[in-house]
Amino acid sequence: MIYRKENKNISLKEINKKNILKIVMEMGPISRIDISRHLKISRPTTSAYIGELIKDGLVKEIGKGDSTPSGGKKAVLLQFNGRAGYILGVMIGVKTIRIALTDLGSNIIEIIKIPTEEWFGPDAVIDKLVKNLKKIIRTSKVNKEEIIGIGVGATGLVDSKKGLVIFSPNLDGWNNIKLKEIVEEKIGLPTFIENECRVQAIAEKKYGLAKDVKNFVCVETGTGIGTGVFIDNKLMTGDKGMAGEVGHIITDLAGDRMCHCGNTGCLETLCSTNSLIEDIMADIRKSGKFVDYGGRKLKIDDLYRLYEHGDKIVTGNVEKNAEYLGIGISNTIKMFNPELIIIHGEIIKFGNKYLSKVGESVSKKTFPKVKDNYNIQFSKLGENVGLIGATSIVFNSIFDLDSSSVAGHYIIKKKIS
Fold first, then answer.
1. Statement: the pTM of the whole predicted model exceeds 0.90
2. Which of these ranges, 33-42, 69-78, 331-340, has the smallest mean pLDDT?
3. For burial by CB atoms within 10 Å, which of 71, 168, 214, 417 has the most?
4. Are strands 147-154 and 191-195 parallel, antiparallel or unpaired?
5. What 3 state SS string does 100-123 have?
């Protein structure tokens, strides 16, 4: 089934169809009569709109529900048809590029993982991205016209309105890259760009721990430290995409370790995984036990194992890392007062002991005279959370189900055969 979009004023009918689709997605399987009750629209009108959504392939009947308490006729149940179209999702990380083809419900159908090799510069990275986008379209055997768009999560400062990567501290040479324009020109599909941390927050809001939470912060940990913030159910982006760059808050005025952003003393220089490994290796060398640790630079997977086994040098540094991350989260709490903080990234594999240390640091550094149990959790969406969020951006932008405005919408017009 193939769709096209139009940007124009839409009718009350189209708004009602959007509301019906939203209810089916959020509450399905659901009957026509229950939808009519929720929206306070007459049953005949509701049935007519649903008929159009079924014809468009967006809604499908899946059988009958239970009979009514009075023994009445069983109602036919409706469900969103995720396979009515497809979306491409991309996450451009410092180490890895992930590309996925999903259905409209962000369920991954096919995925490609390739090394970023950012040292070759933006042109080479983008060429590799375009090549593999074409590859996944080809190998999936999905008709390109059934793909409604591409969502890209990129590390660094991103102006999502302009589709511009303004600056990426951890990707060499990424300054004012017109990523949206380049991808649209080379692939020929509508493309939407967003910061990787905000993409993760979008995924949590739609499918994860924050589904029913109005105010929350997602904290990404790894080569960099960043946040995605929702306040009153709205994603915070800032004027030029700088909102949430907690990793570049100056935390150590005496710090001499240079951050990729060009500053010293950034939180990222204290609790990124790179700084953690550097600190551990320095302590190992000081201890004279370099050979005992394999005589090589340790990798993050080595740290998980050594931390679990209680290695003194690793444990001390990992817990110091947790303390610094707690300071960053404490500053975020003071700024946004979220109901929930969700942690993503490589440090999740250190487990609940690490999470407890983060919580202790947060409690110690956040108004210690005010006793509060801050809700800090590890994400449960897994390593592809960014891809889920990237494809959600496309769906949200095209269908725009959360807006009640009647102007300037992308709408799914009709089946084109």
1. no
2. 69-78
3. 168
4. parallel
5. EEEECCCCEEEEEEEECCHHHCHH
